[in-house]
Batch of 2 targets.
Target 1
Amino acid sequence: QAVVTQEPSLTVSPGGTVTLTCGSSTGAVTSGHYPYWFQQKPGQAPTTLIYETVNKHSWTPARFSASLFGGKAALTLSGAQPEDEADYYCLLSYGATGVFGGGTKLTVL
Amino acid sequence: EVQLVESGGGLVQPGGSLRLACAASEFTFSSDWMRWVRQAPGKGLEWVANINPDGSEKNYMDSVKGRFTISRDNAKNSLYLQMNSLRAEDTAVYYCAREKYRSWGQGTLVTVSS
């Protein structure tokens, strides 16, 4: 089974910009992995921010954007808010199955 | 409002069985791929299984193949996960989620312990 890697933790200042990445042990991440990005706050179910590489749901704040960069999927937060402090997970598809990354704990400080 | 409500979790001994259910409402359940995702206490998310709209295609993560069975009843707008030969490492909150992960349930806790 493939391994999906994320930064274990990142810190961003309020109003600042941070990029979280999602890599694959099998090689470059492409749109064919249909990358997803999720946000999870303590004690809550995850919510989906990004689906299929770059697409936002209606509830996704505009300050979040996603891309493919340097062989990885990337989630960029521009203008961080205190409420963005959370765990962030990416998910890659490998054929009909999925593999989550280990998650990034984002601190807004 | 779209709702996914999981049930069926609880405490079970190693080697035991449990059947989880996910009741769906306010969307066309029979048109969506559905999946189960789990999260062990204090750990990250783990993709478990998915099923296509008519139930003819099912896919599993390696560690649950042969032990877990995903199924659905479109007439009842319900998704199921039959879990057999449970192990301590299956202890987790189990979430159901709809196609494109548009919606998630609140999860049901499964604890495998003697």
Target 2
Amino acid sequence: DGGITQSPKYLFRKEGQNVTLSCEQNLNHDAMYWYRQDPGQGLRLIYYSQIVNDFQKGDIAEGYSVSREKKESFPLTVTSAQKNPTAFYLCASSPGTGNEQYFGPGTRLTVT
Amino acid sequence: AQSVAQPEDQVNVAEGNPLTVKCTYSVSGNPYLFWYVQYPNRGLQFLLKYITGDNLVKGSYGFEAEFNKSQTSFHLKKPSALVSDSALYFCAVSSMFSGGYNKLIFGAGTRLAVHP
């Protein structure tokens, strides 16, 4: 997990509230990613960014938003439009094309 | 469709025995292949990757994997399992035609249980 921090580790919210998950990296990586992990489904890509001020939707972007104003930071907002937000969220970064991704420790979000 | 299959939800092996965790893929173009390991409530840790070259790649903690192009497989292996190897293992692939080499497609994961 070294070099990538996610906070908080656990997050609880009421239904209908937006919530922002933090992801910071000090690895000087250009690319950053957000994944959602649900039991038995592996990881699904929400958004990714290959450079500052640019990002692309992944496979399950609906109900989520991101920003990439700084190289080190890639926060994810889970909006009230996301129908099933309770999940384990993982942030990752990579130095570039074809390289492995480095993952943060994750944030477990519970919405009731 | 581009995909990764890990056909076994769980693999059980006795400590000291060899282990294999299976992975097959379906992508267009030349694949980049990766194995990651996840311990409970933690992020994923990179184990090894195949980009090009020798089909047998060696990685962290004594793991290795063999790329088989004809069978579109990339099975993870270790000669002698340890109880501490018990974890969730993910295979992942990227290719130029599956959204680019930056975009990984993950399998559903295989839980490895090593018994003393």
